[in-house]
Amino acid sequence: MENVVLIIHLLLALSLIGVVLMQRSEGGGLGMGGGGGAVTGRAAATALGKVTWVLAIGFICTSIALTVIAAEKSAGSSVLDRVGTDAATTQETGAEAETTAPAAGSGLLPPSSGDDAPLVPRAD
User: Fold this and answer.
1) Contact at 8 Å (CB) between 5 and 68?
2) Cβ 55 vs Cβ 22: under 8 Å
3) Burial of 104 (0-12, 13-18, 19+ CB in 10 A)
4) Which residue stretches of the chain are H helix?
5) Which residues of the chain have pLDDT under 70?
């Protein structure tokens, strides 16, 4: 489900960029220019303007949907909670690690010449 919403989100983003780039420039920066006259406060809505609004609303909706999906998949704990426990265990075992040598199978040293076991990656 998340992949489908993500693909739709990316397609909306690309099409929104394309539609904005196709619109006519009014010249000048920051809204100066356009030549609308003293009577009209804003220009009439064109088809590209309406398409831009539809794409923008769709982009915002998919952004919110992706946020909700990510929140449902979260483990219910903050990243900062995990960082705090890792730092505490590192500080507790830091003094012990300095006094003892690493174990033979700790993976810090290269394998000995008589070791025939294949090297298997581990996710520690």
Assistant:
1) no
2) no
3) exposed
4) 2-22, 47-73, 79-99
5) 27-44, 75, 77-79, 81-82, 84-109, 111, 124
Question: d(Cα 66, Cα 62) in Å, to the nearest integer?
Answer: 6
Q: Are residues 16 and 56 in contact, defined by beta-carbon separation less than 8 angstroms?
A: yes
Burial 9-39 (b: 16+ CB within 10 A, else e): beebeeebeebeeeeeeeeeeeeeeeeeeee
Q: What is the pLDDT of residue 3?
A: 93
Residue 33, pLDDT score: 55
What is the structure's pLDDT at 41?
A: 54
State residue 20 phi and psi, 5-degree precision.
Answer: -65, -40
